[in-house]
Amino acid sequence: MVVASVALVAAVRDPGRADRAPARAVRTPWRSLPRPYRRVLAVLLLFNLVNFPDALLLLRAHELGLSTAGVVGAYVVYNLAYAALSYPAGALSDRVPHPLVFAAGLVFFAAGYLGLGLIHAPWPVFVVLPLYGGFAACTDGVGKAWISTLVPDRQQGTAQGLYQGATGAAVLLAGLWAGLAWGSDGRVPLLVSGAAALVLAAALPFLRHTHRLVHPLPKP
User: Fold this and answer.
1) Which tens digit of pLDDT belongs to each residue from 154-198?
2) How far is CA 163 from CA 9, 42, 43, 147, 212, in A?
């Protein structure tokens, strides 16, 4: 079936292809990206330096006494919360400034990290991880949308690629320092990251007036 599909694709002909000149690749230096974009990117990078991989959160859940099945169940509940809240968070970001929705996500992040750092029993994990799901719902798509409003159309690919690559590298560094500081129970990096997220959540609303190069859609 796969071979047949590839063969059919190869048989497709574009009648207008010969009439079109080959597209020229245009390189966009990152320094040419607008200053508002670079300012927001710097703030988001600072946050991702304390946003370590979810695997360490699941390790903490296991250390609190959850069995392997319990850890999987808690992660399923987290994903259900993420899925349920993603659409409302995205719809809200169309009506209020993106920094405010992102800041709300950081509050959820702090609730998840501080909660995991402070609890001493396994059952609260099923309360804390769904709260953490609100972080992903309020920041994943909203962050990309926020970035897209700060650059012109011709620079969207460069801006999104730099955002994804830089934040991914920051998360990697966060995982390294958190792993080194994990100790016997992981409370220290969880509390440090949770507190840092609260500080950034308080600062983000001050970016709400960052100049937009792309005008938002009018409200209905």
Assistant:
1) 889 999 999 999 999 999 999 999 999 999 899 999 999 999 999
2) 33, 10, 11, 8, 17
Rounded Cα distance, 34 and 148, in Å: 11
Amino acid in position 30: W
Q: What is the pLDDT of residue 30?
A: 60
- Fill in the amino acid letter for 219: K
pTM flag (> 0.85)? no
CATH of range 42-207; options 3.90.78.10, 3.40.50.2000, 1.20.1250.20, 1.10.2020.10: 1.20.1250.20
The secondary structure of residue 21, as a DSSP letter, is P
CB 86 within 8 A of CB 101: no
